[in-house]
Write a structure and sequence with these properties.
Elements (H helix, E strand, L loop, with lengths): L3 E5 L8 H14 L5 E5 L5 H17 L4 H9 L7 H4 L13 E4 L5 H14 L4 H19 L5 E5 L6 H9 L2 E6 L3 H20 L7 E5 L7 H13 L11 H5 L10 H5 L3 H15 L3
Parallel strand pairs: 1-4, 1-5, 2-3, 2-4, 5-6
The structure holds adenosine-5'-triphosphate and magnesium ion.
Magnesium ion binds next to helix 1.
Length: 285
């Protein structure tokens, strides 16, 4: 069976996209035993470093097992690489998550987008054609490993990127993490239109586009009222992720393998609830 595909995306930066990807991926791999592939589409490489740690990330990078390599072959040519050979296996520091794999990104990834645009525009592709081409390459990659995974999660960069556009156009679901504040809520209105269009192209309905409240501060009256407005206006996860030092600390990889509870402390419970709601929404229960 083909894996579920989900893009975690928001044009706004720093809203918890990469953290959400890491938490969901680890909990589903460790607690639910699902086979999860994380694909990092962000040259900042945050989720790559969070999930695989700096040493392993460096090794994978040196070995050319990167998203750059996958797209490089289509932009610059050269020796063909199979997508499955580029995947880093069992990346997490969570003991019971051997089935969590990832395709890392590197800071150089941003040059590939520029080169791809320059080359394919010279060849006569327009923007829609470019997106289709990148989407097609991403689709082909997922199809080539489809049987090996239950879930593929794309961590998208902030701002606008052709790769993020391609990912949302090929994903079955779109998850938009957001902080409950005024400017973040305004940002969702604008971005959501883009997401709706991506869904409509495949005759999917809007109920595949979800918002997740992140970094929620309990004693913050603005967060309270903005969260309520988000719930009125969008399809919002019941679970909201609190602002938590433990979640921020968990971003740092540990040389000592650990359990979900050791890694996330008291916040492990909310991460399990988030992963549980996520599995129901994507239909993986
Ligand atoms: N629930 C949380 N509680 C505390 N800190 C958090 C939480 N979620 C994320 N953070 C912290 O906030 C910062 C931004 O989070 P993250 O990198 O996940 O956001 P992002 O949306 O992926 O950012 P970017 O747009 O740069 O890719 C990081 O330092 C992260 O550790
Ligand atoms: Mg990020």
């Amino acid at each position: 069976m083909a894996p579920r595909t989900v893009s975690v995306v928001n044009m706004k930066g720093g809203v918890g996209k990469s953290t959400t990807v890491a938490c969901i991926a680890e909990s589903l791999a460790a607690d639910a035993g699902l086979r999860v592939l994380v694909i990092d589409l962000d040259p900042q490489s945050n989720v790559s470093m969070m999930l695989s740690g700096l040493d392993r990330w460096g090794d994978l990078r040196e070995n050319g097992q990167t998203i750059d390599t996958y797209f490089n072959q289509y932009v610059y040519g050269g020796e063909p690489k199979f997508f499955h050979e580029l995947i880093g296996r069992s990346v997490s520091d969570i003991t019971s998550a051997p089935n969590l794999d990832m395709l890392i990104s590197t800071p150089e990834f941003r040059y590939i987008e520029r080169e791809a645009l320059a080359k394919w525009v010279r060849q006569g592709f327009d923007i829609e054609g470019l997106k289709r081409k990148l989407g097609g390459l991403t689709n082909a990659a997922i199809e080539s490993v489809g049987d090996s995974y239950d879930l593929v999660l794309f961590d998208c960069p902030p701002g606008i990127s052709m790769f993020a556009e391609a990912a949302i156009e090929m994903s079955e679901f779109i998850l938009i993490p957001t902080i409950p504040d005024f400017v973040s809520r305004l940002g969702i209105f604008a971005f959501r239109k883009r997401a709706v269009r991506a869904m409509e192209q495949r005759r999917f309905t809007e109920d595949r586009i979800w918002t997740l409240i992140t970094k929620f501060e309990q004693a913050n009256a603005l967060h309270e009222s903005e969260a309520a407005l988000l719930r009125d206006q969008f399809n919002v996860f019941d679970v909201q992720v609190p602002q938590s030092e433990e979640i921020a600390r968990a971003a740092q990889w540990s040389d000592q393998p650990r359990s979900i509870d050791q890694k996330y402390g008291q916040s492990a419970q909310v991460i399990r609830l988030l992963a549980g709601e996520f599995t129901e929404r994507v239909g993986l229960v």
